[in-house]
Amino acid sequence: MRRAYRLDARLAVVVTAISALTLVGAGTILSLEFTGDQFAMEERGLSTQVEEWVGALRRTPGGTVVFDRPAETWSDIDPPYTGLLSGPRPIYGYTVTDATGRVLDRSDANAPAGHPGPADPEPVLLSGPSLDGAGPLLIAELYVPELDVWLRLARSRSDVAALTNTFFAQSLEELGWAALAMLVVMVMTAVGIVRFSLAGLRRVAAQAERITFDNLGHQRLDGSPAPAEVQPLIVAVNQALDSIRAGAVAQRDFSIHAAHELRTPLADLKLRLEGLASDPDRDAAMQDIDAMARLIEQLLQVARLDGGTAFSLQSLHLGETVAEVLQEAAPRLVSAGWSIEADGLDAPVQVIGDPTLIGLILRNLLDNVRRHTPTGSNVKISISSEGTLLFADTGPGLPPDFPSFRFARFVRGDDDARSGSGLGLSICETAMRRMKGTFSAEPTVSGAAFRMTFSLDQRTQHDELKAPS
């Protein structure tokens, strides 16, 4: 069978993958945007720089035009750059030329070569080599009419790639942990949203756990708190429950009708046999008819228990209820030679139960005593304050391999079909289950013992404790 998956775990994986792809995609787009716009940024920056540095040009007393380099601190510049105009890898280079292209002043590195352009008062951007042959260079030149010279400021194109790498290295160092934290928060948020969204589905699952064969007639799944995606499944489950309920009702009705139809011919047959002279065949036939009549009666009991017949669970005095059943059923057993003892009938034990079901249990147990224990055996019924009823006899007891609880139907202690149908203990267990109690066989040295545990009426017990002494 394929192992079921957890939706929150699967969603966490999906959200993690999507978030990682989103971050990678955003970084790629940012890189492309930065690479595409880097030259435009450099051009704007270079134009601004050449306009700013024009003021550093001056004419010496000897008539030569020179450029007063601005002060710079190399330590404030991050690698791979070491200075603006000086150092192992300066950012900028410059030349001061006249109209003929003669160099009047120049930097040590990145000094642009070439003849200046027209005398334009606005910065002109172009590309070209450096005086030492390195390049290419991005050049911004500006004509200075007062000095009749051109200031040409250049920056290496290769430095743009270095600037890009530096930018992303610093961004990753500064924003990497923030991106990781954001990814974790996104995953936790997604899982939390899924868990919150599935809370209604968990409530529906709890409803399904409470559905049993006993409450199948009125218990159904309420799909209102569940997501819309599972509504068709809830509707299908309710329809299946309706079909099961209809089948159970049909089966119960058939059993009840069949049992009722069989009662009359069995009664007529028994009357005819009673009119015959006693002989072994006639006595055996009478026993068979009695066994069949008892089987039919038990089938009716099973049909009522399984068919959802309404039993009124109520608070009742356990001892008084048992006494009423014994008063009606015990005399026939006692007159036939068995003895019955009852203990604890006066104890104020209030339990939740149904008088009809308690009577059904005790009559089946007494009938088992009559059928499976020898005449003269003793039966003892005792009630404890914990809400338990113990039924014990001094007969031969149950077989060693007989189950102690969850008694299956049509399981007999011996192979004699006339001794019983194998339904009595199953009826007792089912009846106790209908009353929210338990029915089990108790281990004994001799004989058989059965313990019935009822649910105590906590309200009555609480009132008794509060009552003044």
TrEMBL record:
Protein name: histidine kinase
The keyword Nucleus appears for this protein: no
CDD domains recorded: HisKA
Transmembrane domains' residue ranges: 175-194
Record-listed E.C. numbers: 2.7.13.3
Pfam families recorded: HATPase_c (PF02518), HisKA (PF00512)
Domain HAMP per the UniProt entry, residue ranges: 195-249
InterPro entries named among the record's database cross-references: HAMP_dom (IPR003660), HATPase_C_sf (IPR036890), HATPase_dom (IPR003594), His_kinase_dom (IPR005467), HisK_dim/P_dom (IPR003661), HisK_dim/P_sf (IPR036097), TCS_sensor_his_kinase (IPR050428)
GO annotation, cellular component aspect: plasma membrane
Keywords: Kinase, Membrane, Phosphoprotein, Transferase, Transmembrane, Transmembrane helix, Two-component regulatory system
Lipid metabolism in keyword set: no
Subcellular location: Membrane
Membrane topology: Multi-pass membrane protein
Superkingdom of source: Bacteria
GO molecular function annotations of the record: phosphorelay sensor kinase activity
SUPFAM superfamilies reported in the protein's UniProt record: ATPase domain of HSP90 chaperone/DNA topoisomerase II/histidine kinase (SSF55874), Homodimeric domain of signal transducing histidine kinase (SSF47384)
Domain Histidine kinase: 257-458
Catalytic activity: ATP + protein L-histidine = ADP + protein N-phospho-L-histidine
